[in-house]
Amino acid sequence: MLIHSIDPFFxxxxxxxxxxxxxxxDSRAMGFFxxxxxxxxxxxxxxxxxxxxxxxxEGRKAFLSSHSIxxxxxxxxxxxxxxxxxxxxxxxxxxISSILSRSKIERIYTNGGKASSLYRKxxxxxxxxxxxxxxxxxxxxxxxxxxxxxxxxxxxxxxxT
Length: 161
Fold this sequence. Notes:
The protein is α/β, with parallel strands linked by helices. The chain has a single domain, classed as 3-Layer(aba) Sandwich (Uracil-DNA Glycosylase, subunit E), CATH 3.40.470. Helices cover 34% and strands 19% of the residues. The chain contains 6 helices and 7 strands. The strands form 2 sheets. Strands 3-2-6-7 form a 4-stranded parallel beta sheet. A 3-stranded antiparallel beta sheet has the order 1-4-5, covered by helices on one side. Strand 6, helix 5 and strand 7 form a beta-alpha-beta unit. It is globular, with a radius of gyration of 14 Å. The termini are far apart.
């Protein structure tokens, strides 16, 4: 059983919460979200906000803060093989209530199908806050190139600074 080892990232002024499924081995080693260099999350956010995204954790935190974005994952603990969401089992969810009560979250988005389905099943019944499902930024989601991801993921930008 793996236990989520990365704290949620948010500030009191965060307005958008993006939830993944569970951190990859690279993310756990880095100590922050989307640490796998093949994942298109950070390049995609750079495109959406027309900015270069720093490669270091502190720079990424500053970038997220400047755009009122919070990050965490749906899963607190699970069994998983590598970073393959299709192998996830024995799931225990994270409690996002502290983020919701200590920030200004207006919208929640899920990154990928597994995060979306687990959110609906395990978190929505407790929060009653809808989440918008977005396609996975993982390189495994090869049917979605970065331009196609951009066309859908740009929804996170309206109203943000």
